[in-house]
Amino acid sequence: MKIATYNVNGVNGRLPVLLRWLEEAQPDIVCLQELKAPQEKFPLEAITEAGYNAIWHGQKSWNGVAILSKKPIAERRRGLDGDDEDVQSRYLEAKIDDLIIGCIYLPNGNPYPGPKFDYKLKWFERLQAHAEMLITLDKPVLLIGDFNVMPTEKDVYKPEKWVNDALFRVEVREAFFGLLNQGWTDAVRALHPDEVIYTFWDYFRNAYERNAGLRIDHFLLSPELKGKLKKAEVDKHVRGWEKTSDHAPVWIELGK
Questions:
Q1: Residue pLDDT, tens place only, 68-95
Q2: Which residues does the annotation say bind Mg(2+) (predicted)?
């Protein structure tokens, strides 16, 4: 089974790119982030014609997450507990066959310091609490998406320039490793422990051409799935397409 994540940076504006990649890559399940579309503007007809069922949690102008699947999807929840006033569309959870999948668009948090960074850390705490509950289910669970964190210096071009960025602050990296310490496996690093791998390249300063990137899109696997992990790759070439997102699709392959 091929499972992917892709921050599309606007699902309607990038729809031709998304459909082209879906046709080329043929993933079984896809988590999308940064839809930048209200609930009623999600391009369901085009997604259906491409062969996918879909659930989505939209938001006007910003955020938004969706899960696409060639198989039926049963929605489990949208949003995280712990803040009744949080209306940002950043978490969507579904059951597909025996898999539980959480699609994540974690807050960026910049500028540091400030209220956006504080919100990011609080959101991370809510995610940790929910992830701890999920991992105790003893079921196959994946937490997938744009975490807006580079866990280690291998995951960022010129890390010394990012020390006080909200994506690389020590508090944020500690929060990510707090998740791993619950028993989750970072799928990409599990198969590529020493490689320089990026999933995002800024639109500015020829970042893609210089491979000046970041690894911020992640797959976390529950213990039940760790032994089934066969591949983990980035479709880097998609970042070079015309009118493409600043992220590239990332995918894993699970065996039986």
A1: 999 999 999 999 999 999 999 999 999 9
A2: 7, 34, 146, 148, 246-247
Residues within the annotated binding site? 7, 34, 146, 148, 246-247
The whole model's pTM is what?
0.98
pLDDT (tens digit per residue) in 35-55: 999 999 999 999 999 999 999
**CA-to-CA distance for 136 and 243, rounded, in angstroms?**
42
- Listed as own residue / partner, the contacts of 97-100 with beta carbons closer than 8 Å and 24 or more positions apart are 97/71, 98/139, 98/140, 99/29, 99/140, 99/141, 99/142, 100/76, 100/134, 100/137, 100/139, 100/140, 100/141, 100/142
Distances (CA, A) of 114 to 120, 127, 195: 10, 20, 33
CATH architecture of the region 2-254? 4-Layer Sandwich (3.60)
23 C-beta neighbours (distance < 10 Å), count: 10
CA-CA distance, 156 to 214, in Å (whole number)? 5
Task: Report H helices in 28-181.
Answer: 44-49, 115-135, 170-180
The domain locations on the chain are: 2-254
Nearest to 10 by CA among 256, 247, 187: 247
User: Residues within the annotated binding site for Mg(2+)?
Assistant: 7, 34, 146, 148, 246-247
DSSP 11: T
